[in-house]
Amino acid sequence: MAEVIRMPRLSDTMEEGNIVGWLKEVGDKVSPGDILAEVETDKATMDLESFQEGTLLYIGIKEGPVPVDGIIAIIGDEGEDYKAILEEAKTASAPSADNDKKESSEDTKNSSGEKKKEDAPTTEKSEVSKADQKADRTFESDTVDERIKASPLAKSMAKEAGIAISSVSGTGESGRIVKRDIEEYIKNPPASSPAMATGSIIKPEGVQYGDKPLSQMRKTIAKRLSESKFSAPHFYLTIEINMDESVRARKLVNENSEVRISFNDIIIKACAVALRKHPAVNSSWLGDKIKTHEEVNIGVAVAVDEGLLVPVIKNAELKPLSFINQEVKELAGKAKVKKLKPEEMQGNTFTISNLGMFDIDEFTAIINPPDACILAVGSIIQKPIVKNGEIVIGNMMKVTLSCDHRVVDGATGAQFLQTLKSMLENPLMILV
User: Fold this and answer.
1) Which of 234, 278, 293, 405 is the catalytic position?
2) pLDDT tens-digit series, residues 342-394
3) Contact, 361 vs 398, CB < 8 A?
4) Looking at residue 109, what is its pLDDT?
5) Among 12, 18, 355, 381, which is least packed by CB within 10 angstroms?
């Protein structure tokens, strides 16, 4: 008997999935474990795996967004009539009009038994309607580069060469852009008209101007950070740390080790040890209670093309610097290609955002729920300082702790920063 395949919830915050492309076509044989399609969630691009055996009878939408539990395919026996099952599944998914009407009638009765004037359709119904319309809509293939008919290899080559793929003519089937088209474009680029001598604007190649549809990741980032900023009362504490000893310790370690330790690894380890000493900072606001976490799990913000992903280093205070270094590299690599697993992005109790590599001296970060705090790390700058009554050159770094005032008070956050400062200025304390 035919089975209806629905859009699964592939992450804890996912509300809809965006089908990037199908690897199977209608009529193909399917076995358990086969990859049916690629689905973009709010955090990563993931494979949609089949758990049924049979023939792919129906594909609900070729490309575009589908709400969680929306119908995306039907698998059954070859030649089986699936239309009745499809209609039944659509009917089961639709809200019951009679129940809605009954509930509305009950809710609009006043104390004298009279019915109030019915309002317009609720926001919830409107959103469901919009989601259904959205699921039935397909994206035009030429609206953005990602929708243009082109092989993955051609897209990758165009991106590396800085070529706007929309300017390349395809010679493949149905005008599909393939590898040879990119190679030909690179060898013989189209002649460009000379820029005007006065008042001309030279636009960089490969930049898309105008409106661009939001990705699932960008939608979720906007929603979660807006909720965090406007629901959690933020306050900020900044401290300057002398990193001379950390610079010296890192140099010694890297001279005698195959693993090259970074300053970020040292900061992660120091934060984890400091959090163990200040458990109030390693806590979360849960509405009617505050949870103090047993584990110290450090989220590390990683910049990707569409925003930020936060892989998590579990039990960071128990791991040596070399382990932290390798784990951060591995998870950051997965984040760059959007291949992080959901469990690799969950369970954070504290987050670090480091922009020091971009020569940012100081900044404030928005708290990453459910954490109570996030640490913004600036660059290490050499500047004159007073040490032992003399003016010397010091390696100074500013860090800013963003705190949720519902969980962490000013004195609590300040004490945590004092401990962190002492550890980074005396790195041996991290081992104690």
Assistant:
1) 405
2) 899 999 999 999 999 999 999 999 999 899 999 999 999 999 999 889 999 99
3) yes
4) 45
5) 12
User: What is the pTM for the complete model shown?
Assistant: 0.59
Q: How many helices (H) and strands (E) does the chain have?
A: 10, 18
User: Nearest Cα to 49, choosing from 90, 2, 93, 10?
Assistant: 10
Distance in angstroms (rounded) separating the CA atoms of residues 52 and 248: 58
Q: What are phi and psi of 21, to 5 degrees?
A: 180, 155
pLDDT in the model for residue 116: 40
pLDDT score of 331: 94
Tokens found for residue 369: 């729920």
> What is the secondary structure of 324-380 as a DSSP string?
HHHHHHHHHHHHHTT---GGGG---SEEEEE-GGGT---------TT-SEEEEEEEE
User: What tokens appear for 252 in the block?
Assistant: 């010694």
Contact by Cβ (8 Å): 42, 340: no
Catalytic annotation on 293?
A: no
**Average pLDDT in the 306-320 region?**
91
Q: Measuring CA to CA, which residue among 216, 215, 214, 213 is closest to residue 16?
A: 216
Q: Which residue has the tokens 């039990």?
A: 315
